[in-house]
């Protein structure tokens, strides 16, 4: 996986932050020879990166990417791994480039180890069964059980990194932190595969 493409909507906020942060992480981790790019499914070529995204990258030591780029057939072909910020980006990219399906993932689902997700799914199923049984026996279901299911389902069904577009610097910082946490896992995965 030596050519990674991050994809978002406008390629001015999330995917450029992912690109810049990833370059820094790769350098810090000594992962040489991995190229990173970004693009947007609804981007125009040449729009400058958002001011807050640039500020966040600067304060994180991330390199500032070039201007925005629209997702193009040549970039998709170039990439060995395409990581999208949301499942909608993933669906769109697969629809447009069906031949690339095997290399398109949401960033979150790609870095989430299968066993961690599997453990969560098993817990949801066990809790659901317990609750159904309790309901059948007219026994009370605790608030704790209900809220645990909601938490697990939220974790499992939200493979999206929300758009900070138009938000405050703080929103960009928290978005960058969310992306950064995923990228640290991505770097570990890339290291392991070497
Ligand atoms: N809403 C913007 C497009 C846009 C959307 C999202 C966005 O954020 P990101 O770069 O993270 O997809 C940036 C730009 C417009 O109408 O021009």
Automatic annotation (TrEMBL):
Keyword Nucleotidyltransferase among record annotations: no
CDD domains xrefs: LMWPAP
SUPFAM superfamilies tied to this protein: Phosphotyrosine protein phosphatases I
Record has Transcription as a keyword: no
GO molecular function, one term: protein tyrosine phosphatase activity
Pfam families from the UniProt entry: LMWPc
Keyword tags: Hydrolase, Protein phosphatase
Active site: 8, 14
Domain Phosphotyrosine protein phosphatase I intervals: 2-189
PANTHER family linked: LOW MOLECULAR WEIGHT PROTEIN TYROSINE PHOSPHATASE, LOW MOLECULAR WEIGHT PROTEIN-TYROSINE-PHOSPHATASE ETP-RELATED
Family: Belongs to the low molecular weight phosphotyrosine protein phosphatase family.
The name this protein goes by in its record: Protein-tyrosine phosphatase
Organism: Paenibacillus tianmuensis
Species lineage: Bacteria, Bacillati, Bacillota, Bacilli, Bacillales
């Amino acid at each position: 996986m030596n050519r990674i493409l991050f994809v978002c909507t406008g390629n001015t906020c999330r995917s450029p932050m992912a690109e810049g942060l990833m370059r820094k992480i790769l350098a810090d981790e000594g992962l040489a020879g991995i190229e990173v790019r970004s693009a947007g499914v609804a981007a125009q070529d040449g729009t400058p990166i958002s001011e807050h995204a640039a500020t966040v990258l600067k304060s994180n030591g991330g390199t500032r990417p070039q201007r925005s780029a629209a997702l193009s057939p040549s970039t998709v072909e170039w990439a060995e791994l395409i990581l999208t910020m949301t499942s909608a980006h993933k669906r769109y990219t697969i629809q447009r480039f069906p031949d690339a399906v095997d290399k398109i993932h949401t960033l979150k689902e790609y870095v989430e180890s299968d066993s961690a997700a599997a453990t969560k799914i098993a817990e949801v199923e066990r809790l659901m069964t317990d609750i159904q049984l309790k309901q059948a026996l007219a026994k009370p279901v605790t608030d704790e059980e209900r809220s645990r299911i909601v938490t697990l389902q939220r974790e499992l069904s939200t493979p999206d990194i929300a758009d900070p577009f138009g938000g405050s610097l703080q929103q960009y910082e928290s978005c960058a932190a969310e992306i950064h946490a995923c990228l640290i896992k991505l770097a570990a995965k890339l290291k392991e595969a070497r």
